[in-house]
Fold this protein.
Amino acid sequence: MTEIKDIRPGIAVIIFNKRQEVLLQKRADVGLWGIPSGHVEPGETVANAAIREVFEETGLTVKILRLIGVYSDPNSQVFHYPDGRVTHFITCCFQAEVISGEINLTSSETLDLRYFPCDRLPENILKMHPRWLKDALTPTLQSFIR
């Protein structure tokens, strides 16, 4: 097993459009599709980090609707970057709605942004993101802890 030298608080934000399609970002760092996500900066709340990351990566301003879950299982939350870094993320996944803005590709972290039907996700998607989406689509009042 690769030695993990870094643990970071992470966020992810699931955004649906009016057709119940999910917004995915093709990430520049790994070339894979995924839910807009990132990490919490020092002095920042997880909710503010979620709002900031979505804006930075998509150009959209969002309002947090609910906490979907907190994900910490090393089997899905240890991320191997192409540059050799290995990071264990403790990720708070939220559902949000767009309140203003238009999708743009000005972020150096984003190669593409598209809405996908939830039953037709791209094959080259980050391994943990379909689980987060499945949890988001599960009708429950409780958040998941995985």
User: Anything to note?
Assistant: The helical segments are 46-58, 74-77, 129-137. The domain at 6-137 is CATH 3.90.79.10 (Nucleoside Triphosphate Pyrophosphohydrolase). The radius of gyration is 14 Å.
